[in-house]
Design a protein that fits this description.
- By secondary structure, the chain is of the alpha+beta class.
- It has two domains: 14-62 and 99-353, Bira Bifunctional Protein, Domain 2 (BirA Bifunctional Protein, domain 2, 2-Layer Sandwich); 367-453, Rossmann fold (3-Layer(aba) Sandwich).
- 41% of the residues lie in helices and 19% in strands.
- The protein is built from 17 helices and 16 strands.
- It has an eight-stranded mixed sheet with strand order 1-5-6-11-10-9-7-8.
- A hairpin with a 4-residue loop joins strand 15 (430-435) and strand 16.
- Helix 1 (14-33) runs antiparallel to helix 7, helix 7 crosses helix 13 and helix 8 runs antiparallel to helix 13.
- The radius of gyration is 28 Å and the shape is elongated.
- The protein starts with 13 loop residues before the first helix and ends with a helix.
- The model has no long low-confidence stretch (mean pLDDT 89).
Length: 454
Amino acid sequence: MKPSIPKGTRDFSPTEVAKRNYIFNTIRAAFEVFGFQPIETPSFENSSTLMGKYGEEGDRLIFKILNSGDYLNKVDEALLTSKESNKVTPKISEKALRYDLTVPFARYVVQHQNDITFPFKRYQIQPVWRADRPQKGRFREFYQCDADVVGSKSLLQEVEFVQLYDTVFSKLKLVGTTIKINNRKILSGIAEVIGAKDKLIDFTVALDKLDKIGKDGVVTEMLSKGITEEAIEKVSPLFDFDGSNTEKLNSLANMLQNSEEGLQGVDDLRFVCDSIETLGLESASLEVDVTLARGLNYYTGAIYEVAAPEGVKMGSIGGGGRYDDLTGVFGLKDVSGVGISFGLDRIYLVLEELGLFESVALPKPKVLFLNFDSNNDIEKLKAIKELRNNNVKCEIYPDVASSNKKEKKQWKYVSERGIEFVVSKIEDNQFVLKKMSNGEQTNCSLAELINTVQ
């Protein structure tokens, strides 16, 4: 049987890894320029840490890990016979693969609160897992690149995150991204003024799907969740909300004049938009999107989502928001946080589609020592050691050529890997060095060889 990998996972070739590392390194450099520090957390957490933090939809997508040993032995037989998976699962699975990096980060902050200097700015680049239906740009195993600040309620952080997105996309030469922004307080205010405050989660989850299922789909879902036709009629102007950011915010202020929370959200959003208008952006644009809800329960303030340039069919390539009390579920109250995430895998696909990987070089030796004669292998290895000590990437072709055919195989290896310099042989401590771009060949000492290839 031919081996395979699970759906929603991928192998990566050397070229693909080089391109991914280019994105990782670009994001990591920007994180550190903005003052973030790296941390890492385990791939799996206790189920109690993760469950109940992502809403009903998110909880269903968490990969559970079966307990070791005979995990069914201690489960009541009646419970097994009932075939109710929601009741059986906690008995046979105490751990789960992390769904994102934010909840593990909140757990980290609470667990290490006495060792942290607040405000704490952290970044984290690690894989996460979701039992989602695989499709273009959506995988079951993928990397997140997160940056968060906890311990500050200042809206300056929201402004900086917009700048951070713009900085990364500018470095990647990804022009034309749209940073969509909303505020959870605005959504709460809208739910309040239309009389659906008790249906806030259902309302926001449905509204967030507007770009996927359209107005009719959103209306159908809201009705199915018990939101009245009268309430939907009041909210219908949001389905076709347009104009400049200022015009949108003015319309929202008028719509929310009877909601103190909603007006606070408008003021918060206005501060961020006005600040960015003054500071300017290089490659991205900032757009108020009042339908943006991001279905996660823990957002309480600003919400971000990044759309790829127009013409590129791709879901969001980044997102995040403010969560005023995420650490509260772990016992540490009133620690406000705000953070964003870069969707590495989708960014990769966008850069690939737009041909923006041209400058990414695959790691390879600068110098290759051919192996036509094994008599002076030690001399070659000594030279290679010295070259590496001088930070020159180099290697020796491992198998000695016993025929013309095998010599051609070595030259083919040089060509296919695009190696710049080749040492074909050593005679009387002189190296026969060939520059592959023009075929120029010289005899030189080791010192001269090092100087030439550097």
